[in-house]
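Order emerges. One example.
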Amino acid sequence: MEAYLKKLCSENQVTEQEMKKLLARMKMMHLDKGTMLAPEAADESGLYIIASGILHAFTSCEGVDKTIEFLSAGDTLFCYHTDECSVKSLTKSIVYYIGGDEVEELCAASTSFANLIRQLTEHQLHFREEMYVNAHKQTVKERYLSLFTHIPDILHRVPLEYITSYLGTEVTSLGYVAGRY
């Protein structure tokens, strides 16, 4: 079983069979580095499952991008098109996508799909809430350690500017933090 599928199943307490059924209904997208992730239509919501690569969610304020989250293989993203947050591929990536209308149709037609989507939604909401709370409570060191637990090889795959933006520190400070751990 592929690593992203194993992570999806274990984190969301769903079976491999359920995830494979959902993935079979989704569109596979190959993203080049720097590709913006956007729903098929600007006003549509959708579900994305990252199969490989690293993406980042960010906000822009006065021309400066601020990374708020990194996504990697096995992560899910319910994307609702907004002007507040964007998602971009930082490496070549493969993601699966299904539109919001089709998600609703699947849920209406199948209790198992409805439960699967509910579990994915609950997990993502819990993760996001924890992430936002920790962003204000955690020190740079704690955020650094958490990031490298989630994506151990991120330093080798993503430019430092994105990592320092996420941590809220400067490149020189990152070197200090990294040198200690």
Remarks:
- Residues 41 and 125 are 23 Å apart (CA to CA).
- The helical segments are 3-12, 16-25, 100-109, 111-137, 140-150, 154-157, 160-167, 171-180.
- Strands lie at 27-31, 36-37, 45-52, 54-61, 64-72, 76-80, 86-89, 93-99.
